[in-house]
Amino acid sequence: MSVSTGSDPEKGAADIGGVGGKSPTEDPALEKVWRKVDLYVVPVAAMFYLLSFLDRTNFGNARVAGLQKDLKMTNKQYSIALTVTYVPYIFAELPSNLLLKAVGPNRLLPVLLTLWGVVTTSQGAVKTYHGLLACRFFLGLLEGGVFPGLVLYLSTFYPRQKLNWRIAAFFSTASISGAFSGILAYGIIHMDGLGHLHGWAWIFILEGLFTILFGISSFFLLPRSPEDCRFLSETERLYVLQQLQKTGATGEESTDKFTWKEVGLAFMQPQVQMLAVQFFFSGSLIYGLAYFTPSIVQGLGYTAARAQLFSVPPFAAAFVVSMLLAYISDRYRCRGVILFTCGILSAIGFAMYLGSASFHVKYGSLFFSISGAYSSAPAGATWMANNSAPHTRRATAIAIAFIMTNSGGILVTWLFGTLSPAPLYRKACITMLIFSLLVSLFAGLNLWYLTVQNRKKAIIRQSKEREDEEPGLGDKSAWFIYSL
User: Which of 65, 107, 130, 174 could lock 53 by a disulfide, CB 3.0 to 4.6 Å apart?
Assistant: First the structure.
């Protein structure tokens, strides 16, 4: 009942037999199955990532609320505390993604979520800088597998052409978390002194406790795979599996098994290499804005409390833009064009910030820069997942993408934290402007490369039969058409 991983996403392959002698593909009503999957799977994935981003980036809100002052940290020590989070985060991403299928996402992801909730809560009790460093290290170690794991997880539920909107749906919670954390921090810092704790401590404690509770409940909410979805009928499960195989999202069991050769092949693919470089620049933009937007807004003349509140609207706008661009990407199958557009949006924002002396214009620029940066991640992640097969190669490629993303995060913690003075962070913003343009450049290069490869594959398909092709080629198969 399986079809090769290298299936042509346009022409499809043989149907899986349906129930009662009717093939599932003959019933258009079965297309409604994706709404069911959306209802049961995407909200849980979205909450995972919202809590991941919230528990990592609330550090910026805590800084504005007095964390750095109360622990007597210098700007350099603040940057070290951020860097300590990224190092284990980066090292955890690839092993976690390679283990995901063997252990089961329904077990591994909830365990990670619950444990990092414990660590987040513990941050509220730290009294020393070194205690904070220990918490940040374990937070990064436990959160490292979340985003690449969620992208890989969703890629096993949705055909390639339906994936971008779903990834955007859960990643856009990062922009929601940016808005939500500002509102939450605005309210929580007024708890300063309650229980003899600082307001910033309550930010960590309350958000961490909620993470623990959701982590425990997620053991019962997250299905392992489409085959294990109790909310789908047998006909619906067959239809989902057929559509996944038809578009090359899954393949033969023999080619989807783990091998170190597939891990190595992922590193050698030009489309992976170009997107990896793009992810470094994109990650720099995302984390620079995630961690330092409250500080940037405060530098525009707002009080600490109002800086928390005024950081909300740009992130809310980013959510809307991200979902709109993801819809266009899936509807017109234009991953590369969308990613190129994201880089331009960010560039416009940073150019406005640098080019105007008006604080109102500088604040308005955040709507462009944050929207562009936060929309680039789901577009790039979908493009990476779409064009890597079989499973191990795709798992590795996705992990590579987010290793590079978080490497960019390390850069900006120093760029904003120590190398570019507040309140305007001019040097950092010039760098971010250049990085925004480079996001567009590498998106364009990758689009050109994949277009050329698809043309070469079309010529091969005209001159030979599919049966003559070597099996197990994955995305290298002439019958696997790259998403553009």
Answer: 174
Taking only Cα atoms into account, the Rg of the chain, rounded to an integer number of angstroms, comes to 23
Number of other CB atoms surrounding residue 73 within 10 Å: 17
Q: What is the pLDDT of residue 452?
A: 97
Longest dimension (CA), the chain: 77
Domains of the chain from N-terminus onward: 19-462 (1.20.1250.20)
Q: Give dist(CA 164, CA 436) in Å, integer.
A: 21
Confidence (pTM): 0.83
* pLDDT the model gives residue 170: 80
* 8 Å CB contact between 322 and 373: no
Parts of the chain with a pLDDT under 50: 1-26, 252-254
> According to the model, what pLDDT value does residue 355 have?
95
Q: Is 326:379 a contact under the CB 8 Å cutoff?
A: yes
Report the distance separating Cα 477 and Cα 466, nearest Å: 9
- Condensed to tens digits (0 to 9), the pLDDT of residues 20-46 reads 334 444 457 788 899 999 999 999 999
Give the burial class of 461: count Cβ atoms within 10 A of its Cβ; 0-12 exposed, 13-18 middle, 19 or more buried: middle
Give the torsion sign (CA, 220, 221, 224, 227).
positive
CA-CA distance, 268 to 264, in Å (whole number)?
7
Distance from C-alpha of 184 to C-alpha of 314, rounded to nearest angstrom? 16
Q: How many residues does the chain have?
A: 484
With helix as H, strand as E and coil as C, how does 7-26 read?
CCCCCCCCCCCCHHHCCHHH
- How many CA atoms lie less than 13 Å away from 293 in the CB half-sphere? 32
φ, ψ for residue 250 (rounded to 5)?
-135, 170
DSSP letter at 483 equals P
Angle between helices 426-463 and 270-299 (to 10 degrees): 160
- CA-to-CA distance for 259 and 146, rounded, in angstroms? 22
Rounded to whole angstroms, how far apart are CA atoms 476 and 5?
Answer: 10
Burial of residue 60 (number of CB atoms within 10 Å: 0-12, 13-18, 19+): buried
